[in-house]
Design a protein that fits this description.
single chain; 26 strands; mainly beta; five-stranded mixed sheet; Neuraminidase; four-stranded antiparallel sheet; globular
Length: 384
């Protein structure tokens, strides 16, 4: 009964919002139109992995700087996206340029019917001298979603899988907010924990009533949105402003895509999230990553172009001094990659960027047409 009342209350709030101009846009916005005239950053780039034969699908990459080394993880499939047998692999580099052949971080288990499950790389989190790698698992029909973690103290040798008892596939790994709480960016759920290790105490949280979902993965964000009259919202990334407000931007995909990110916010450290609203921040229909520069400005790395839907090009850095207006735009990269082998949903020049900052550099890892994995870095002193 309580769950039903929550849904009714949520719908009433949504109806009121619509009557008073639901389409009112959030103050968070950018000013990207076309890439002509924008500054191209001076970059270095390195291919981490490009398949020759087999394991032709590579996506969902994340990168970390750990004990003087660069560590990358990603989803690694035989041919098609998110098909049975997809695993998670990693590679470690000492110099950014040389990347050894990937090693397997995690293999999928088998479902009751004997079909292999599917694993998805889900990012990193560092606690003291330990690096944690996260990955999600579900069955072929996108059920029994489960989050796992493994730890390392040297980047090469990993622990046994640790069950986090969370039914989601994260978009990005955990990030710490001001009070030390960790928050995971999912599709529509944003679990949090006050356990600084990132390995226990996780609690689910979402802008949806908990009666509308049991798990959060790449197939489950459509129905809750449809029930509440929202577009398909997914693949969040957040930043926190100095007033302690959390701003979670969301991708819109499928038939709901209209070239804009949406926004939900939390004012209580991630326990409760506001109803989502459309922003005036342009988006190509892809994953993106928000963060904060050492000089305290806020940044976005993603694909803001709306003229070439789903091309995922160019890769852009946008900066905001106030966390609202991302009005400084830079081209990180726009060179084309030629696909070697077609596969299900393979495409997109600069797919699913993830970033990290270390020693005056920003590192950006992406997939190229969901086939090769590349890392780009540039010096932050180029950003006046």
């Amino acid at each position: 009964m309580k769950s039903l009342l929550k849904v009714i209350l949520w719908i009433l709030l949504l109806t009121v919002a619509c009557s008073f101009g639901y389409a009112q846009q959030s103050g968070i916005r950018n000013n990207y139109t076309i890439q002509n005239g924008l500054t191209h950053l001076k970059i270095e780039r390195s291919i981490i992995y490009s398949p020759v034969k087999g394991w032709l699908y590579n996506h969902h990459a994340a990168i970390a700087v750990f004990k003087g080394k660069l560590i990358a993880i990603w989803s690694n499939g035989l041919i098609d996206e998110d098909s049975p047998g997809q695993r998670v692999v990693f590679s470690v580099s000492k110099d950014f340029k040389q990347w050894p052949a990937p090693q397997v971080l995690a293999q999928p288990s088998k479902a009751v019917n004997g079909i292999q499950n599917i694993l998805t790389a889900a990012g990193f989190y560092q606690f003291k001298d330990t690096l944690v790698a996260y990955y999600g698992e579900y069955e072929k029909d996108r059920t029994h979603t489960h989050l796992w973690a493994k730890t390392t103290t040297d980047g090469l040798h990993w622990s046994k899988p640790i069950d986090l008892h969370l039914p989601l596939i994260p978009n990005h790994g955990p990030e710490a907010i001001k009070n030390g709480r960790l928050i995971i960016s999912g599709n529509f759920s944003f679990p949090y924990t006050d356990d600084r290790s990132g390995l226990a105490g996780w609690k689910m949280s979402s802008f949806y009533p908990d009666s509308l979902y049991t798990q959060d993965n790449s197939a489950t964000f459509y129905k809750p949105a449809e029930k509440l009259g929202l577009p398909p919202l997914c693949e969040g990334s957040f930043f926190q402003t100095d007033d302690a407000v959390l701003h979670m931007l969301l991708r819109v995909t499928g038939k709901g895509w209209k070239g804009k990110l949406w926004l939900t916010e939390s004012r209580d450290n991630g326990s409760i999230w506001s109803k989502p609203n459309e922003t005036n921040f342009s988006d190509n229909d892809s994953k993106f990553h928000f963060g904060r520069l050492p000089d305290k400005r806020y940044y976005y790395v993603g694909i803001p172009d709306t003229l070439h839907h789903y091309d995922r090009n160019p890769l852009v850095l946008a900066i905001a001094a106030d966390g609202k207006y991302f009005n400084k735009q830079y081209i990180i990269a726009d060179e084309l990659y030629q696909l070697k082998q077609k596969g299900l949903w393979k495409g997109g020049q600069y797919g699913y960027p993830h970033t990290t900052i270390s020693n005056g550099y920003m590192y950006v890892i992406i997939s190229r047409q969901k086939e090769s994995i590349e890392v780009i870095r540039f010096k932050l002193n180029q950003l006046p």
